[in-house]
Each structure stands twice: as C-alpha cells, then as structure tokens.
Amino acid sequence: MSVTDDAAADAYGFHDPLTTLPNRALLMQRVKQALARSGRIERPIAVLFIDLDNFKQINDTLGHQAGDHLLILIAGVLQASLRASDTAARLAGDEFVVLLEDLNNPAEAALVAERILKQLAAPFSFGGREVQVSASVGVAISNSPLDAPEELLHRADVAMYRAKQQGKNRFEVFDQRLSREIHERLRTEHDLRRALEHDELRLLFQPEVRLSDDAIVGVEALVHWERPGYGLLGPEEFLPLAEETGLSLPIGRWALGEACRQAHGWRQSDPKLVMSVNLSAREFYRAELVQEVASALRESGLEPGGLALEIPEEVAMRDPERASAIFLRLHGLGVKLAIDRFGEACASLRHLRSWPLFFVKIDRALVAELIGNRESAALVGTLIDVAHALDLRVLAEGVEIAAEAVWLRERHCDLAQGDYFARPSGSRMIGLLFGQDIGALA
Q1: Which of 7, 219, 331, 373 is deepest in the core (most CB within 10 A)?
Q2: SS3 content of the chain, % helix, strand, coil (to 5)
Q3: Contact between 364 and 408 (Cβ < 8 Å)
Q4: Which of 116, 132, 112, 134 is nearest to 124 (CA)?
Q5: CA-based nearest residue to 438, from 325, 284, 312, 275
Q6: What does the pLDDT look like over 255-274, one tens digit per residue?
Q7: Is 438 a residue whose pLDDT tops 50?
Q8: What mean pLDDT is reported for the chain?
Q9: 23 near 90, Cβ under 8 Å?
Q10: CA triplet 383, 387, 389: central angle to 5 degrees?
Q11: b/e 336-372 (16+ beta carbons within 10 angstroms → b)
C-alpha cells in the first residue's frame, strides 16, 4: 500500500493509535487483496499470529505505561523484520499479525517466524531497566485465492494456541491434524465443565501400605471422570487440562469434601487411618485454601489428623517462602503435609527442614526404573536416606512388581502404594480391604 493509501486509510481509522500499525480492519483488507494476487501469480501467502508470552505479568509488575511502551518497541521490531511488501498489524492487547506475500515456498514463512522469535528474545531496554519477552507464533499458509481472510487468520490463531500448549516461545504451522486436536480439546473442556453438574466425577482410592508388615495405613483419593462415551478416565487424562483452564478449583473442592466425608466414615472402624488428597498449583496458592480445608473438615466431621495434603515439590519450589507460610497455616489446622514427586525439583535441605512435613512421596517414574537402572536405584536410595536424615517418612508410589517392593523394603522405605498391592478402587472395595488389621501411619 502506498503512502497516499495509508493516509486515506487513516481517515477511516484503519491504524492502531498506540503502535501506528495497521489494525484488524486494514489487515483483513490487505489479506483479501493478497489472496487475490496470489491466485494470479501462483505464489503462496502466509499469516503469522503472534501472541506475547506472560505479557499480563509484565503489565502487572511494571505498570500499564511501561507495557504500552514495550508494545511500541515490539511493533518496531516486527516492522524491521519484514520486507516492504509485507504487513505487520496489531489486533488488540499483545496480539500481532504478520502478513507475508509473494513467497517462493511455504518454508519461507517458518524462517520468518524463527527470525521474529529470535529478535524478540533480545532484552528490551527502557526506563533504566531491561525486560525479557518471548512470544508464541502460529503460522497459516494459503495456496488458494478461495481462502477466506477470516478463516486464514483463524488457522494461524489455532496454530498459535498449539505453540502455547507446547511450552511457548516457539512457532507451530497449521495443518488439519492440528485443527482436529484443538477441536477435541475444546470439546473435552466443554464436557469437563459439565462433569460436576452431571455427577460424572468419581473418587477411587488406592491403599498406602507399610512395608514392614504390609498393613494398610492410609489411602490416596484419586479423581476419575466417567465421561459419557469414553468410559472411566484416569486423573492424568483430564486433570492437566483442568489445571490449565481453572477447572481444577471446583474439581479440587469437590474431591476434598468427598474424601473427608469418606475418611470420617472409615475412621469409625479405625481412627488411625489417613486420607491423602492432592493439591494442584492453582489450589495451593489460593488465598482461600486454608479456609476451604477447615470447612471441609468441619462439614465432614473428620479430625484434622485424618487428612494428609500432598503438594508436588515443583509447585512448592515455585515460591518457597510463600509455600512456607501456607504450610505453617495448614499445619496449624492439624492436618498432615506431604511433598509429592520428591526429588523432581531438587528442593533445598533448608526448605525441607523448615517445612512442617509428615512424609515425602517418591515419584512413580523413578520407582519404575529401580530394577535394571543403577542410576535411578542410586537416586531413590539417596532420597530415602536424605528424608530419613530429616526425620521424614518416605512413601514410594507406582510399585508394580514384587522386585520393586523387595528393593524398597531392603532400603528401609517406610510406605508404598501401587497396583502390586491394590489398584485404585471404589469405596466399597476398599472397605472390604479394611477387614485386615489396619496399621497406624504414625
């Protein structure tokens, strides 16, 4: 578009007032024109959808004025990365779009995406400070003048969403397989939002066994989803999505309440039984957590000592000082606290010593490699020794075969759980298991 054309476009409000880049309306016009030209010259065009990673955090930390200045700098980087025939536009917020015309081949679009990511990775300096940013980029390529501009933009948006899922600071190229994956994810999210309302969630319980005498000393509550048409889904099949979308909060509240009620009933037979419940990152760092735990205990009638809350080590290590404060408040309620996936995030001995923990859990991935992998066996042995030196009990999860149980028993691991002892089961089956002498976790 010529300078005269741009001036005419300004009269109709076709430019973003902050960055002066073309806005969505002007971008769509240019994409439509580019598609028509591509049909005449038989060369592909591409649309790159660019979304900054964690821009909200930058805005919250530095202020909106600094955020606006950063957007202006990024607009300049994009313009400098392109040919005169290409277009950089700002849609809204921290979303930008690049239109590439007259490509020799589709691979050129990927090279441009790589170049943009590399240039955005360089620190931005302003206001006496340096700010590091990254972006997720979705690439959609058109070889047909019959493509609709909005559909091309949508494909690039879908690919960008996939780049976010895959860890950010990367680009993804749209294809039909990706479209099907995104569609399935959206359908799963929709169904999961209705799961609580339709009473489709189930708690299964897996016994925790004391290795010295194979007595059941506790159970872990595991959320499953009876999804219509799919059968019973394990937690690993839907909880990561629940955590991403915020659905882990209502699901977690439901699971905590149900687990406490069940534990209260079982402890009428054995007052020493302990119910373990997992907390996600979203749950653990919520200001309302301690109040919600107290309410679940009060409403169920469960004594605090009958509940153990498990927090992944990686989650606690995201903010150790804040985690310490939360641990102390939960400990004040009288509940037991455990670090899950012990050894995964290399928590310092200082933190492990200061946190009011009752036991630590060694991740199933390490337990699965105990037999036949000397490095994993040595690591698990070291983790057991470290925990014992800190006066912590150790539970190994994911024990599948007798050889693993024997190895753990010989290394003086305190507790274990896994399919070798008992698979996760409904409350009725676990109740039958309680016919044996249930030991104490203490």
Answers
A1: 219
A2: 50, 20, 30
A3: no
A4: 132
A5: 275
A6: 999 999 999 999 888 888 99
A7: no
A8: 89
A9: yes
A10: 115
A11: bbbbbbbbbeebeeebbeebebbbbbbbbebbbbbee
